[in-house]
Amino acid sequence: MIEFYKYQGTGNDFVIIDNRDNHFDGSNTEAVRFLCDRRFGIGGDGLMLLEKHPEFDFTMRYFNSDGNEASMCGNGGRCIAAFAVHLDIVPSNEVFQFMAVDGLHEAKYDNGIVSLKMIDVKKVDLKDDYTFLDTGSPHFVQFHQSVDQLDIYKMGSEVRYSETFKPGGTNANFAHFINDNTIKVRTYERGVEDETLACGTGVVASAISAHFKKNTISNFDIEVLGGKLNVHFDANADGSFSNIWLVGPATFVFKGTIEL
User: Fold this and answer.
1) Which of 73, 100, 155, 192 is catalytic?
2) Among residues 15, 32, 147, 199, which one is catalytic?
3) Rounded to an integer, what distance in angstroms lies between the CA atom of residue 174 and that of residue 239?
């Protein structure tokens, strides 16, 4: 029997396992896929293992719902930060540090809201009709007059599997401005292979992309299908971005046990 916890951040939902004793084998892709399955398992956009780290408060390991260990997940990072607070591994209302696949992150939990510091973005590729950048995961971002009626599955999968982004593919974000410092974002996630209700690294990529259209603004409120997030950052003279923070709710849903 495996004990698990379910968390969600603006509709991005995750199965989380306290794996500080290494009882769960993360290399078992079939088990991860089963646990994330919405019909036969628990259901989730991904699975995370909270593990020990020799220097920092803990390690976050993230797996896509296809069973494979994956690149960084921003909303997952916020949820595992809340999980660590709820396990009393780290304190509430104080900054703590954890290691993820893309490097060291800082986080702070305050009454259900998690602020997560993301990795610096060194380079943004500005194309004629889209931007491409890595915010811990690779992201394509394209702005439209409105994203409300777009076929995100069709458009996103075409981008994700296009020749341009082979062999690894990319996540695909489609956005529009609500006002100068508010955008709406819809995301097709690689590994989930569908639209999700939110994507943390995707909204960070979208906010940085929005900055190039409104270059005096470095603080954006973001509407996603699952709720609201905030991204703020420092835009540097050399074109890089630092001190990037993703802020929003991270909510415990339920816990249980399941037999593999």
Assistant:
1) 73
2) 199
3) 22
Place of tokens 């802020």: 247
- 235 shares a domain with 216: yes
DSSP notation for 67-88 = S-B-S--HHHHHHHHHHHHHTT
Tokens matching residue 83 = 């999980």
User: Model confidence at 257, in pLDDT bands (50, 70, 90)?
Assistant: very high
DSSP 127: -
Please work out, in degrees rounded to the nearest 5, the angle formed at the alpha carbon of residue 170 by the alpha carbons of 56 and 154. Answer: 135
The pLDDT value given to residue 170: 98
The verdict on 107 and 155 lying in the same domain is no
Could you tell me if 60 and 107 lie in one domain?
A: yes
Total Cβ atoms within 10 A of residue 179:
8
State the Cα–Cα distance between residues 56 and 58, nearest whole angstrom. Answer: 6
What pLDDT digit, counting tens, does each position of 131-150 carry?
Answer: 999 999 999 999 999 999 99
Please say if 79 is a catalytic residue. no
Which amino acid makes up residue 172? A
Residues 6+ apart with CB under 8 A from 241: 120, 121, 124, 208, 211, 233, 234, 235
**Nearest residue to 231 via CA among 123, 135, 105, 129:** 135
Instruction: Answer yes or no: do 179 and 104 share one domain.
Output: no
Q: Structure pTM?
A: 0.96
Q: CA-to-CA distance for 168 and 161, rounded, in angstroms?
A: 9
Beta bridge partners, 232, equal 219, 245
Whether residues 239 and 254 share a domain: the answer is: no
